[in-house]
Amino acid sequence: MSTEETNHSSNEDMQNALFIIKIGGNIIDNPAALEAFLADFSKINAAKILVHGGGKIATKIGTQLGIESKYIDGRRITDDATIDLVTMVYGGLANKKIVAQLQALGTNAIGLTGADANIIPAKKRPVKTIDYGWVGDVETSGIKHQTLNFFLGNGITPVFAPLTHDTSGHILNTNADTIASSLAVALSGSFKVRLIYCFEKKGVLEDVNNDASVIRKLDRNYYQQLKEEKKLFEGILPKIDNAFAAIDAGVSQVLIGDARDLIKNTTNDNEGTLIY
């Protein structure tokens, strides 16, 4: 293939590329880290969607308002008072601050929850052994990908707070990783999607005690080998399993890495772990 043909192919790939990027509380709770991340995010010259977690802001404001945070096994119990709190904080304060910062950086962003334009319907999690309250499980097949295609096609970058709705008038607190994965699956028919999870490590580590032991590329066979050799930290296994589930559902690639490496992690010369 000639240089001209290679460049043309590369340009076509970028035109059809979509980066869905999820950030968590370690960035949301750190103004300097968030500012640096958004500066990098704004430089991505392709279609992109940002999904953000809630961080500790809701707990802090809840304490000020006299709303006690309740957790079971690290998961927030979302009662009537708490769903109002997280809707206010996640969908309002956190989301709109991010949108305003992106506008200042030249990225035309729109802040959304799953209820807006009925984009992400969900169901209230059924009560089994634990009642999590107003917590939602995404109905991936119901995601309105046509609406998202409209935004993206007009140069508008969606920024999602970790909230969905049950189509009966209730907002639902929803895991941000799940929202990001569900959006990636829903849009995989229209785009070549790379789903990027930003977390506190540089990527998946072959040796959890050595931050330099990042696995750059991980396919299913290599993953099985590493699991059999018990080289991977157990806490990362659910993230990898979810990544392969997204790929099985049509997502092209999933990358797990450090938010500070975002620019490189949107290229083929990634710093994090590319799962495919």
Automatic annotation (TrEMBL):
CDD domains: AAK_NAGK-like (cd04238)
Annotated substrate binding sites: G54, G55, R76, N173
Site (Transition state stabilizer) residue list: K22, K239
Keyword Thylakoid part of the UniProt annotation: no
Pathway(s) the chain acts in: Amino-acid biosynthesis; L-arginine biosynthesis; N(2)-acetyl-L-ornithine from L-glutamate: step 2/4
GO cellular component terms given for this protein: cytoplasm
BP-aspect Gene Ontology terms: L-arginine biosynthetic process via ornithine
Compartments (UniProt record): Cytoplasm
Protein family (similarity comment): Belongs to the acetylglutamate kinase family. ArgB subfamily.
Record protein name field: Acetylglutamate kinase
